[in-house]
């Protein structure tokens, strides 16, 4: 039955590709989460009227973020080839996709982090200052916990963008479902492979969306 | 625009003894909020001194200021609780900041929860509490590090009248139990009347009047103060209705009596009518309790021989009650 509908699909290849897509997505989501929060905090804290108000650092960070957000992802991968080669030692396979994925997504997420932090009630920050809190206490015990639902829904949106990035990276040899769909499907006119890869990717997106919505709700006590 | 400096508080000098509840009242924009935020340096003063326990807060550098702030409690109009933390965790927060050990922290938080009457709500989140309960959490939180002074920034302005009274009662009981100095700012005279020992009236960044609450109430000097006092006695607005009683008749005088402190509790009117040959017609009156005793106003019409009326007035004045004879304007 299965072989009638999908004559060209080899399931062992499908599972390997699915694993690679998950691998790239999860590692890059974690990397983006950390780098994005760092950048987002820097953007927020150096902004006027905030804890580390500093217009020079703020505008430098903002420019870097804007430049990297402006570069189309497929071009960013090509641009980063030398850097990736230096860092990972290869320009092929799932690991080679990671630097481009993180550098491509982190600036986008940083803006979402900044927006989330701006939503934190100024009065609560002031209350913490009035209690004599240190800057790092305010960051880790006020700013991040109080913006957590928005940080999580932001990383969910970013994760879904990252899944689509992994498919694009696949086209230039990073592995994963995008690679499989292009090489085994499109190039060989096996459209059943393309179709099944699409279904798998959609399922992965749904899984991430569900997990994101669920955990965002879980931490929201407003 | 961004470099423009605004002088919100100008040349304000106030002494507050330990254990006192001191109130600052003013309309919005009077500078009272800036005044209270200067005390813990949420606003920086351009010049002057803020002495707390022999230490000049205004001169403190960042680190010592941080330490000092742990000893200055503050509660806010909008409570400013962390919604991501439970009641228990919110109250524990200042203790975490001060680096108190975990088991000690738990003990202290339980103690505070009992003090503010929130037993059983430890694990609720702020969103599950009413406004009054939120402010109780705020109060417990502000007391966590045994502060030397408690600052209340419009702490009851977002609450309904009944809840306001509950919170004010709590503040008074804390003041008595812990001998804690409380500085509060408000735009409601009712709050001053109910809890404060002394009051300062602010207008355009300056203190226009300060002193014992009772004195300020009974003899308001400035126009602003008079308006605030009127908030409390609705009679002041109805003075027109007395017009028909105020006549040129020599045998009748309408007088306004101010009772202060214990005088408010005496049966003065019946004393006068027994001792002198006058008839007293009570027109209207009110009595307001304050922290330092009650004060009341009473409008009466005294009828009798002009000479006897004068005697009656003298008798009343001699007993320490202030008398004001009302005439047509």
UniProtKB/TrEMBL annotation, chain A:
Membrane-spanning intervals of the chain: 22-45, 66-84, 150-173, 193-212
Subcellular location: Cell membrane
PROSITE patterns documented for this protein: ABC_TM1 (PS50928)
Keyword set, alphabetical order: Cell membrane, Membrane, Transmembrane, Transmembrane helix, Transport
SUPFAM superfamilies (UniProt xref): MetI-like
Coiled coil: none
Pfam families per UniProt: BPD_transp_1
Name of this protein: D-methionine transport system permease protein
Species this protein is from: Alkalibacillus filiformis
Phylogenetic lineage: Bacteria, Bacillati, Bacillota, Bacilli, Bacillales
TrEMBL record, chain B:
UniProt-listed InterPro entries: AAA+_ATPase (IPR003593), ABC_transporter-like_ATP-bd (IPR003439), ABC_transporter-like_CS (IPR017871), ACT-like_dom_sf (IPR045865), MetN_ABC (IPR041701), MetN_ABC_transporter-like (IPR050086), NIL_domain (IPR018449), P-loop_NTPase (IPR027417)
Start and end residues of each ABC transporter domain: 1-229
UniProt KW keywords: Amino-acid transport, ATP-binding, Cell membrane, Membrane, Nucleotide-binding, Translocase, Transport
Keyword Translocase: yes
GO molecular function, one term: ATP binding
Pfam families assigned to the protein according to its UniProt record, in alphabetical order: ABC_tran, NIL
Segment forming the signal sequence: none
SUPFAM superfamilies: ACT-like, P-loop containing nucleoside triphosphate hydrolases
Superkingdom to which the source organism belongs: Bacteria
Name listed for the protein in its UniProt record: D-methionine transport system ATP-binding protein
